[in-house]
Design a protein that fits this description.
Order of helices and strands: EHEEHHEEEHEEHHHEEEEHHHHHH
Strand order of the largest sheet: 4-5-6-8-7
Strand content: 5-15%
Shape: globular
Structural class: alpha+beta
Largest sheet: 5 strands, antiparallel
Number of helices: 13
Distance between the termini: 58 Å
Radius of gyration: 22 Å
Length: 387
């Protein structure tokens, strides 16, 4: 059978099935094949995977006071399903339905929890260049926000980088309004608050590829093995530096920022010379160095890194942190290797691997990153290496 559903853990444990659902329970079984769910709609989405537009429309109209007349699915590269809604008064909304498989993945918060927290908190500290949270339902796993009119920009330019810098600056300065509440906020997904955090993250991603090495194309596997070799080499070099200098790589609370995390052209809308930012699924406290590395290395940005010098210098100047550049030089290349693994992630899927060719865009991107790993003789300021 494909799915087995029961409300007793002992029954679930006694049945062999690829996918098992423990219904109406607060328990978390230590079994990767078990989903713990408390609502039949969650089970529906798990079995049928992607909900249809008509199903979403019926779900909202049945369970809220909104009367949605029209719903249009938006084509997206995201894991979540996204829709544009129109109510009877022709008002427009944005709706995101999160993948149910994320329910047990995060040790502290799911994507939907982080999104809700970010939208509420950023508005509270007077950040207005984001959508407003209209409604959410954790049972049905969706968030509904105001619709942002505008267009997505296709290329990075100085105007975008200036707006992104101001967005981060305003969050950083206004987060002081939170005072003692700041330390109670969650750590960002994949945060790097200690040196070992980035090493553990890379090793975790590498292990997923190793577990699926039989389905991964040989050319892709060669890149994975090279990433592993370079990670070990860079880690050895960094450890020697840390030991020799007695540098303490730990980000105290006073040096942490509220990080919107996944920031770039792919998460903003441009209208009337204003950029609005959205998508805060990884939101939380983090090192500003981690955010900077991810901004530079995001595939939408990295191809334009020749434009990043001024952004880099102004970003570093935002933070009164004498150790900022040391942490940056220690981890930038490690973050680059991590991004190669993110880019190649889909090759862990059998169907995607079967259709592999050397012209595959993700494969070509990974080779571009790998080529730039050794490009530290560049005149670009942010390619500085450790001594």
């Amino acid at each position: 059978m494909d799915f087995f559903i029961d409300d007793l853990p002992k029954v679930i444990n006694s049945i062999y099935s690829k996918k098992k659902i423990l219904f109406n329970s607060n328990e978390n079984l230590n079994d990767k094949n078990v989903y713990c769910m408390s609502h039949w709609d969650q089970i529906t989405k798990t079995i049928f995977n992607k909900p249809s537009s008509s199903y979403i429309k019926k779900m909202i109209n049945t369970n809220t006071n909104f009367k949605i007349k029209q719903i249009n699915k938006i084509e997206s590269n995201r894991n979540s399903e996204v829709f544009k809604l129109h109510d009877l008064s022709k008002k427009e909304y944005f709706l995101k339905v999160y993948p149910i498989r994320d329910q047990n993945n995060y040790s502290y918060l799911n994507k939907i929890d982080r999104e809700i927290l970010a939208l509420n908190l950023l508005k509270k500290i007077r950040i207005n260049s984001i959508p407003s949270l209209i409604y959410f339902d954790k049972e049905f796993n969706f968030v509904m926000t105001s619709w942002i009119t505008g267009k997505a920009k296709k290329k990075i330019d100085d105007e975008f980088l200036f707006s992104l810098l101001n967005f981060i600056r305003k969050i950083h300065l206004n987060s002081k309004l939170l005072k003692n509440k700041f330390k109670l906020l969650p750590i960002a997904k994949d945060a790097v608050l200690n040196y070992d955090d980035i090493i553990l993250d890379i090793k975790k991603r590498l292990s997923l590829f190793k577990n699926n090495k039989n389905i991964i194309p040989k050319d892709v596997l060669n890149i994975i093995l090279e990433v592993e070799r370079l990670t070990n080499s860079q880690n050895y070099k960094n450890k020697n530096f840390l030991k020799k200098t007695n540098f303490k790589y730990h980000i105290n609370l006073s040096k942490q920022i509220l990080s919107p995390s996944d920031m770039g052209l792919h998460n903003c809308i441009y209208s009337n010379k204003v950029f609005n930012f959205y998508d805060f699924e990884y939101f939380g406290r983090d090192d500003p160095v981690k955010l900077l590395c991810d901004i530079i290395l995001n595939p939408n940005t990295f191809i334009y890194f020749n434009l990043m010098n001024n952004f880099f210098k102004n970003y570093v100047a935002l933070f009164n942190d004498k150790n900022f550049l040391i942490r940056y030089r220690l981890t930038f290349r490690l973050h680059l290797l991590k991004w190669i693994l993110i880019i190649l992630k889909r090759f862990n899927e059998k169907d995607y691997s079967r259709s592999f060719t050397k012209n595959n865009s993700q494969f070509k991107k990974s080779k571009f990153y790998l080529a730039n790993f050794k490009n530290f003789d560049s005149s670009l300021y942010f390619f500085s290496d450790i001594n």
